[in-house]
Amino acid sequence: MKKIVSLGAVFGLMPVLAFAASRTTIGDIVATIGGLVSYVIPVLITIAVAYFIWGIVKYSFAGDEESKKNAKNIIIQGLIGLFVIVAFWGIIAIVQRTFGVDSNPESPIVPCTPIMQDGQLYYNC
User: Fold this and answer.
1) What gap in Å lies between CA 83 and CA 87, rounded to an integer?
2) Helix, strand, coil percentages, rounded to 5, for the chain
3) pLDDT tens digits, residue range 96-113?
4) I need a labelling partner for 117 at 20 to 30 A (CA). Which of 7, 8, 85, 123 fits?
């Protein structure tokens, strides 16, 4: 377990080392994090919603009290996960707007979904 955490920390800090090697600003770092978040957030929200729905299904088909209690915990964990994901998304958006990183400040704060059409990658925002 310690090896996994250590490797995660090393690979997680690699971008910091890369940014230290060149002359970048805090705006560049925030823009990079914002770009990564725009790809990751829809996936995380999908996983959290699926987990929440799984809890509802388990609760619906639970027979005894122990199964219902476990299903309630899954539902609560799914809701907490959704809240944390959306809160993180909002904090990143606020930081982007604060540092003026967002190229279009009038754009709504929603994740962009990538779409492939005719071999080209487009973003549906």
Assistant:
1) 6
2) 70, 10, 20
3) 777 776 545 555 556 667
4) 85
The C-alpha torsion from 56 through 60 and 65 to 71, rounded to 10°, is -20
**Could you give phi then psi for residue 124, rounded to 5 degrees?**
-100, 100
Q: Which of 80, 97, 70, 94 is nearest to 44 (CA)?
A: 80
| 118 DSSP 8-state letter | T
- What DSSP designation does 24 have? -
What is the model's pTM?
Answer: 0.55
Q: Is residue 95 classed as helix, strand or coil in its secondary structure?
A: helix
Instruction: Tell me what percent of the residues of the chain surpass a pLDDT of 70.
Output: 67
What's 34's DSSP letter?
H
* DSSP 8-class letter at 22: S
